[in-house]
Amino acid sequence: MSEIELSAGVIDYTDTGGGAGEDGVGDKDVVVLVHGLGFDESVWDAVVEELRGDFRVVVPVLPIGSHRRPMRPDADLSAHGIAAILAEFLERLDLRDVTLVQNDAGTAQLLVGVRDERVGRLVLTSCEALDNYPPGIQGRALHAASRVPGGLYLLLQSFRVPFLVRMRTSLGGMAKRPIPYALVRRWYRPLLTQRAIRRDLAAFCRSTEKDTYLKAAERLREFDRPALVAWGAQDLMMPPATGRRLAELLPRGRYVEIPEAGTLVQLDNPGALCAELRRFIGEGRDIAESAS
User: Fold this and answer.
1) pLDDT at 21
2) Are strands 9-15 and 55-60 parallel, antiparallel or unpaired?
3) Does residue 132 come out as left (phi exceeding 0), alpha (psi in the -120 to 50 range) or beta?
């Protein structure tokens, strides 16, 4: 893991290397993978392994639950604050013309029309969007627990019990395939062992504004670069109908469904997702080359 100090604090990230240099030219396109609430970089491991030979793949660990380093107490950890952290991360690493891939959280949408100058292509896989925020039973329960003293701590204790984790009202409802409990332990260890990490997550949850992504949707209409909406065909938490509506908003958007996948498409069917990413990035490269 590498680390970088940003305005909000120090965050970890992985970087396979080999992308654009100081002049913006390099031998590999840059793909930035963005995780959701309560996950870290490991949720993308299968996708990184599949893509690393042909792309520079960068995965930041954003401070939304599974981060190992607490943020500064005065950091803005609202949805917009997390988006600002992502934008600053891209700037500090001088990543340009990136393919920005988002899952679960809606963070990448909040850069559009605000700080999206480094985004060359946008990929939204099953994620918070439009009026589905907080999303599903899981999102609403987390939001409610964060507003009750001690509620978040009590809710998090359920992740110590494999049976409870597998329930459809928990992580079991986010994936079609069983999630290895070793991964769950990894993701939730920071929240279960560090009060400051729970403080960060509580700050994020308590700042929830229901119309956050409805407002962001208006800016999506002005996004003039290629966009792919790749949704889990069996997603229970983020309905495919939401993905289709997103694709219709994006002027250059295209909608595809990832078969045999729920919200966590990168765990359920990484091969199909990577095939769509390769096709999408390749199409954009061909168009750019023909224009030149």
Assistant:
1) 46
2) antiparallel
3) beta
